[in-house]
Amino acid sequence: FLMERKTHVKINRKEVMLAKLRKSCSCTPQKLKNFLMDFFPVLQWLPKYRIKEYIWGDVMSGLVIGIILVPQAIAYSLLAGLKPIYSLYTSFFANIIYFLMGTSRHVSVGIFSLISLMVGQVVDRELLLAGFDLNDDAPPASGDGSLQNDNLSNTTAFNFTIVGINAKCGKDCYAIGIATALTFMAGVYQVLMGIFRLGFVSMYLSESVLDGFATGASLTILTAQVKYLIGIKIPRSQGHGMLIITWINIFRNISQANLCDVITSAICIVVLVTAKELGDRYKHKLKFPLPTELVVIVVATLVSHYGKLNEVYASSVSGAIPTGFIPPKVPEFNLMLRVALDALPLAIVSFVFTVSLSEMFAKKYAYTIRANQEMFAVGFCNIIPSFFHSFATSAALAKTLVKTSTGCQTQISGVISAMVVLLVLLFLAPLFYSLQKCVLACIIIVSLRGALRKFRDVPARYHVNKVDALVWVVTMSASALVSTEIGLLVGIVFSMLCIIVQTQRPRTALLGQIQDTSFYEDDLEYENLSAVPKVKIFRFEAPLYYANRNYFLKSLYRLTNLDPNLEAARRKKYEKKEKQHLKKGNHRTANGLGIGETTLQLVPKQIDFQALVVDCSSISFLDTTGVNTLKEILKDYKNLNISVLLACCNPSVIDSLKRGGYFGKDFGYMQEMLFYSIHNAVLFVKDQK
């Protein structure tokens, strides 16, 4: 039977586009209100805020995250190659802006180790190109911690001209200029992606690519912190192969290790790891996680200050951290041009991590987020703070997990965290002057535990899916051994190539009938299947398109043990020989048979079927090459008196076949060529006998 297709009304796309354009361009008070409510989701949920139910959890989680943010902000400044004050600015502004614009109730947006590393690599490259020394072990600035003294202490500034910039600017000044220009461009990209609804780009970053990228970047982060752990002074490596070059320099200079830094690092790592393991083991009994990082920083700062570790043992310390806010400044346009390309992977990674975490926690706590609004939120978390000497931000998994475990209900907790950071910015920052850099390196390295533990998951990942495991290994290796940006690109390209290869060489099978049923399955995979007499049933488990056309034909000929082209050529050759013998008057054929037996000889013994059924249930689409391939086998097998039937085609495949003329001009033979199940096709063949 042939099912009757519905008639679809043709849509005038031009009219639809014009109608949408007119609707979007119109402005009414209600539309303006809806726009503001959508653009600032806080206007929707804040009036409905349940103070008695939510406030305690939000305050507790906000305080805990704020306490965690302060040491992490100071530590991650090492990764970004910037002063700690800029990390504190970043943490403050990101929380406030996401509170206004974000749709997730739980994610913690701020500094993130991976993003800080990507910013730091661009900053280091541009500093090197501008002629600055990347050695960051200069004597710490002294003073009372005020902004004025901090600016005066940086008297190593000199005049330089680069890409149209002619200014008296020191290393720190130029570094934050690069970082803000990079951040501004990343934010612009994210906003543009939101306007043009390009959030689908994140679909090309699979879980294996993201995990491999994060693990490879974690190895780079760990490598960059080793010199602080042992207190050696080596140049900050730049470019491809940074990880290998850094380790070579470390082993060359290992004899110069600072014993004070080594002992401090060992103690801090033992304390931090022990506290983390105990916290993970007894987290169900703890109302909130232990503020181990803050305790370590406070104790280490006191020991360093009163023990005079910098003066006596030449241990590298953070130096003066100014209080207050630096006046806002527009990022340099000329610097934006230099980092425009670098900002693109930064924008994509920042957005993908934020949206994936938002979706994960929205699903867990049964609410919805708007991915496009998240794009705008994270974009403006980069654009606006870039005017206030901040760098790129993203959602962070570790802090988000802490946030939810301590009772977070809404983004009010983000405001509380911002207030904690503001307190440090205004009053407490100078107290961290004597904090050793090796302590900050320990905090960074211990925070990488989760990403580095992914190595333990490789066997399980390999067992589940070998291709995904290979994608993880390739992405991780490229991110660690080449560079983070190249690693991300390699991971995306390689994962897409794997998909293409899988569609180029998909599974193919001949099907047998499950006894006493109307169902058919792969006779190589299942026992007790019975072959259908005189019928071959072929399954191709992929779309049929130009890239796998040859594989389709080779698999079909191999499994059916018949190449119709070769068989047709053989028959023509045989007939030609027979005619030559007949012309000579020889009534014995080339095979020594009589003329009466020639007809039997022309029918090949190896052809043991009269019909070929192609199971199209796994063919999701056909391109022009795919349609022509099916027309080709239809013609070739017809020349051998073998009928070709198609079964289980979806509507899009049927439409492609119709447009390609597979069923003839008037579709007259369609009922004899197309069937809605394999069993119907088999029954049709039996009836034709």
Automatic annotation (TrEMBL):
**Start and end of every STAS domain?**
525-685
- What does the UniProt keyword field contain? Cell membrane, Glycoprotein, Membrane, Phosphoprotein, Transmembrane, Transmembrane helix, Transport
Stored InterPro entries: S04_transporter_CS (IPR018045), SLC26A/SulP_dom (IPR011547), SLC26A/SulP_fam (IPR001902), STAS_dom (IPR002645), STAS_dom_sf (IPR036513)
Pfam families found in the cross-reference section:
STAS, Sulfate_transp
Record's catalysed reaction(s): oxalate(in) + sulfate(out) = oxalate(out) + sulfate(in); bromide(in) + chloride(out) = bromide(out) + chloride(in); sulfate(out) + 2 chloride(in) = sulfate(in) + 2 chloride(out); iodide(in) + chloride(out) = iodide(out) + chloride(in)
Q: Which residues form the signal peptide?
A: none
The subcellular location is:
Apical cell membrane
The highest taxon in the source lineage is Eukaryota
Endoplasmic reticulum as a keyword of this entry, yes or no, is no
Transmembrane parts of this sequence: 54-76, 96-119, 173-192, 212-230, 335-355, 376-398, 418-448, 469-497
> Where does the protein principally reside?
membrane
Membrane topology qualifier: Multi-pass membrane protein
> What Gene Ontology terms describe where this protein resides (cellular component)?
apical plasma membrane
Molecular function via GO: secondary active sulfate transmembrane transporter activity
Which family is this protein grouped under?
Belongs to the SLC26A/SulP transporter (TC 2.A.53) family.
Supply the name of the protein: Sulfate transporter
Q: Which organism is it from?
A: Acrocephalus arundinaceus (Great reed-warbler)
| Organism ancestry | Eukaryota, Metazoa, Chordata, Craniata, Vertebrata
